[in-house]
Amino acid sequence: MLLTPRTRKRRIQGALLASAVSVCLVAASAPSPATPLGIGDRLFPHLGNPGYDVKSYDLSFTYPGVNDKPLAAVTTIDAVTSQRLERVNLDYTHGTVESVEVNGAPATFTSAGEDLVVTPGEPVPAGGWMRITVRHSSDPVTTGNGDGGWVRTKDGLAMANQADAAHMVFPCNDHPSDKAMFTIHVTAPDGYTAVANGLPAGVHRAGGSTTWTYRTRHPMATELTQVSIGRSSVAHREGPHGLPLRDVVPTKDRELLEPWLKKTPDQIAWMESKVGPYPFETYGLLMAQAQTGFELETQTLSLFERELFTEPALPKWYVESIMVHELSHQWFGDSVSPRVWSDLWLNEGHATWYEALYAEEKADKPMETRMKTAYRASDSWRAAGGPPAAPKEPAPGRKISIFRPSVYDGAALALYALRQEIGHPTFERLERTWVALHRDGTATTADFERLASDLANRDLSGFFRAWLHGTKTPPMPGHPDWKSDAPKARKGA
Ligand SMILES: [Zn+2]
């Protein structure tokens, strides 16, 4: 994700207005006290659920032709249990559940916090497959100014689930540590086009509506789900090595946006020259007619505000570097996902790094200048948001407040220090090895630290303790003259 400076203020204000999401599950019965569970993520204690590993999601959405009414939805989850389950907790809120089946038999259900708690007729044994089918609504109307989940665009809907909003759209194990394959079906009235993550797997037209099916070829975290429904066109082109690219644009703007869209193949080639092969089956930009205040690296189809490309005040090099930011997330954040949300700096630090490196190489904006500026602010960022790898908890009602400068330029600054410390060749080898080693998986900060030490052939634990976990910015290797301004006394982050 990238909060664009021009809209940062608006987005934060919007988030402040947002109140708790409404829970309106219909409880078929409440057999015994159900409690919301989580997998112990320090920043989001109730995300994810213990006892099972989701292997695949099959999502079906039926769009009614207006974006202020709930979509009818069916979510089917295939999972493997790791323990005997008398109850199965799913993350789900902001919708109505009609029915739940577990392994083909009706199950009872109730809500607890932001969990949908399912009680099958018979406990599900450990170590076996479990299929859960939930018939539910998926409501695009959020309280407040959009807490994520569905994004209402001028002509339909898009999705922005990072970090914790996928379960406002569909029941799931809403944590990036449980990646799964996705099949997504969208039915919409004629005149609309639907596109989702992955490659097309069928189009079926009947009775004034069309059902599109898309399927991922790689596992994906729930927070990276994307579904676009709109009066849009799909522009196809080819990327490096025949990689199929497709962009989703408002039909009326296709020509206007083409000069930007055609930059993608070269940007992918540039990223491949830095870190190795593009990790997925396709890529493209979704140009949404919405003011989200951010761009988002939804897997294989990054979400952008159309305004980013039509606002004449924004320099061309800046817009291109933002495109590269979201593109680089396909390696850093999507293919290699954070194990816990405190590892967010692995996403944003690297995306900021390649954003800045691209600007240095293509637009003569020196990395060193940007990093020296970041160094000045770094102590203040750490005081406000915590160190890069130990971010402060999100403020209540401001969950996107984890996306702070400390994990963007603050974390890119730590990568710069690392490159200063171990040298360019080892740093570049580390980056390539990292995305190859953890492709389609999840990884932790400790994994990164260990790999860096291995490749540098020396113990870097002291370096990382200071740079990633310390409250004060350590001296910059090679730049002993760099200074960080003292944090000003302030409230909040
Ligand atoms: Zn980002």
UniProtKB/TrEMBL annotation:
Keywords from UniProt, A to Z, are: Hydrolase, Metal-binding, Metalloprotease, Protease, Signal, Zinc
Any keyword ATP-binding?
no
SUPFAM superfamilies (UniProt xref): Leukotriene A4 hydrolase N-terminal domain, Metalloproteases ('zincins'), catalytic domain
InterPro entries cross-referenced by the UniProt entry: Aminopeptidase_N-like_N, Aminopeptidase_N-like_N_sf, Peptidase_M1, Peptidase_M1_aminopeptidases, Peptidase_M1_dom, Peptidase_M4/M1_CTD_sf
In this chain the Aminopeptidase N-like N-terminal domain maps to: 162-222
- Region listing for Disordered, in residue ranges: 471-493
Spell out the Basic and acidic residues composition-biased ranges.
480-493
Reactions catalysed, as given in the entry: Release of an N-terminal amino acid, Xaa-|-Yaa- from a peptide, amide or arylamide. Xaa is preferably Ala, but may be most amino acids including Pro (slow action). When a terminal hydrophobic residue is followed by a prolyl residue, the two may be released as an intact Xaa-Pro dipeptide
Name the source's superkingdom.
Answer: Bacteria
Asked whether the keyword Chaperone is assigned, the reply is: no
Q: State the signal peptide span.
A: 1-34
Q: Could you say which cofactors this protein requires?
A: Zn(2+)
Domain Peptidase M1 membrane alanine aminopeptidase residues, every copy = 264-467
- Its EC number is 3.4.11.2
User: Belongs to which family?
Assistant: Belongs to the peptidase M1 family.
Its recorded name reads Aminopeptidase N
Source species: Streptomyces mirabilis
